[in-house]
Amino acid sequence: MNFSWKSRISVIMILNAITAVLFFSSCGEKEKPSVDPVIDKWSMIFNPSVLTRNEIITELTWFRDASVNLRGETVLSAAEDIETHYWESRVLAIAFFELTGIKVIHDIIPEGLLVDRLRAQIENKKYYYDIYVNDSDLIGWHLRTGAILNLSDYMANEGKKFTNPGLDLDDFLNIEFGRDYDGNILQLPDQQFVNLYWFRYDWFSREDLKEKFKNKYGYDLGVPVNWAAYEDIAEFFTTTPVDGKKVYGHLDYGKPSAALGWRFTDAWLSIAGVGDTGLPNGIPVDEWGIRVENRIPVGSSISRGGEVNGPAGVYALEKYLEWLKKYAPGEARGWEWADSGPVSSRGDIAQQIFQYITWLSDPRYHTAGSPVCDRFGKPLWRVAPTPHGRYWDKGMKIGYQDQGSWTIPVSTGGNKRAASWLWAQFCVSKSVTLKKFLIGGTPVRRSTIFSDYLTEHIDDYGGIIEFYRSSDEKKWTGSGRNVPYYPGMSQLWWKNIAKAITGEYTAQQAMDSLAEQQDNMMADLKVKSYRPELNKKMNREYWLNRPGKLPSESPKEYRPRPRPVTVQYEVLLKQWETKEVR
User: Fold this and answer.
1) Helix or strand or coil: residue 247?
2) What is the separation of C-alpha 522 from the centre of its chain, rounded to a whole number of angstroms?
3) With CB atoms 3.0 to 4.6 Å apart as the test, which of 224, 506, 518, 525 could cross-link to 229 if both were Cys?
4) DSSP labels, 291-336
5) Separation between Cα atoms, residue 82 and residue 441, nearest integer Å
6) CA pseudo-torsion sign 289, 290, 294, 298
7) What is the Cα–Cα distance from 462 to 356, expressed in whole angstroms?
8) Does 70 lie in the same domain as 108?
9) Alpha helices in 363-506 (DSSP H)
10) Buried b (16+ CB within 10 A) or exposed e, 1-10
């Protein structure tokens, strides 16, 4: 019988629980631990964990005791529709209620609707939820509105007695994404997933295909380091049948929707080379093309010192349009993010430059008999660093990580605030985070990534664990603090890009329109702090020749297509292994 990846995990977990029950039942009466039966039950269900069973019991006992005066409270929370959050709703909410007596209604809704409700709650004082899991991309808006609870202050004062002593903030992956300019934590990470390059390792390893590619392009088939190589590989597989079957060298989506905007704001421009050097975002120009001086956004168009509509931004859109038309399945123009996510599992896609790893938790990527797995269910695919465009320079951000983060509006007060904070901490506790990763593929803690369990099962993840263990991981970041109004500004992107897809706009016209609209929205923005103050419009030469400016800060001039570069995957893995792990 063939078991799916998740089925195998479920069997392992059941066996672990049975083994634990048999072990403790075989102990003498004096040796049996005296444990609350509810805590005892969940301590076994949450295996495998990075904690020992006794450590899990200690942590769960703390949650029970800390909530003693909050029993009977109800928490309304919301998160986007990915498997991680469904598991929180189906499993963790039940566990939390049984342990604490606090009822949680954890609504799982589309991300666009979630952002709209959060915006309405903050701007229009309309109550929807006590706590949200929303992307740390909103941090620039949150820190400017003053409408989000400062968790650093809360943990040190009012919320101290409700703060898990085992929270271990240093263990979180990229907790800096949710900090304000002064280092205060406004958002606590709940899950994150990275955008990486995905490819069919089995095809890239075949001698017949390697020989054909070398004969046609003059260099070795391998993981593309730059877009020039990606483009050649896309052309090769789209025009070269594999085992007599038509395949595609690229995968993407193009349906007009909020997700189309995320396709670009999730660092596509930085991958092309928009923005300056600096991490987590370019300084002074970031990957949204926004110039920020002394924490104040001053413009995103070329005429105001930004880069949205400069050569690199236009190039980013042009390549997206070209590859979507030439190398992706014809139906891709009608897909949204959720439609395209699992498509590469069907077996006719050679590579994908922009794959969110959350989709790689789907059983189709881990099941014996799947077109992208071997007979044992091991992946025939791999992930690797995202290849960069012709305007990218060393020291720049090279990719994007989506970090869903717990966010409490300041309007949530008293016992509701305390109960919401306990719920958030429970969902990211060390007791549960390894198992949550096994379900949803969205890590949130270093202890999960470096766990013995994942070391033992590292071959099941196609390079994901190696990536997260490498120092390269820090080069994949969120949108950052400089975007002053993510809920409104992100909407501008897809509406302009959609016109380029239909042909109503050229790529240059689309980016010109986007830059102007983005500047107009920033100019009208009313926020509590760091309000945008736009630069005066100046001609292009002013910004290119401004006295004292570093060349890297200037809007980038046209660059020709570089020499294609590839690297063998085994070499890449060794590079990751030999780099100093942070």
Assistant:
1) coil
2) 25
3) 224
4) EEETTEEEESSGGGT--TTSHHHHHHHHHHHHHHHHTS-GGGGG--
5) 10
6) positive
7) 14
8) yes
9) 414-427, 433-440, 446-449, 452-456, 464-469, 486-502
10) eeebbbebbe
Structure tokens at 569: 């995957």
Q: In this structure, are 86 and 225 located in the same domain?
A: no
Which of 231, 223, 299 lies closest to 521, judged by CA?
299
Peptide bond into 280 cis (omega under 30): yes
The token duo for 72 is 């009977």
The per-residue pLDDT for range 502-535, each reduced to its tens digit, is 999 999 999 999 999 999 999 999 999 999 999 9
Indicate whether 226 and 357 sit together in one domain.
yes
Integer Rg of the chain from CA: 24
Q: Are 44 and 20 in contact (CB under 8 A)?
A: yes
The structural domain count of the chain equals 3
Which domain, by its residues, includes 163?
Answer: 33-186+408-449
- CB burial of 348-377 (b: ≥16 within 10 Å; e: otherwise) equals bbbbbbbbbbbbbbbbbbbbbebebbeeeb
More confident residue, 24 or 43: 43
- Pair 387, 226: CB distance under 8 Å: yes
CATH number at residue 54: 3.40.190.10
Here the tokens at position 403 are: 């970090």
Domain annotation covers residue 7? no
Backbone angles phi, psi at 158, to 5 degrees: -55, -40
Pairing status of strand 74-80 against strand 131-135: parallel
The answer as to whether 476 is a domain residue is: no
Over 254-283, what HEC string results? CCCCHHHHHHHHCCHHHHHCCCCCCCCCCC
Q: Are strands 131-135 and 399-407 parallel, antiparallel or unpaired?
A: antiparallel
Residue 198 structure tokens? 């995905």
Residues 63, 166 share a domain: yes
- Reported residue count of the chain is 582
Are 437 and 148 in contact by the 8 Å Cβ rule? The answer is: no
3-state SS class at 464 = helix
What is the value of pTM for the model shown? 0.89
CA 285 to chain centre: 22
Q: Read off the pLDDT of residues 162-174 as tens digits, 9 standing for 90 and up.
A: 999 999 999 999 9
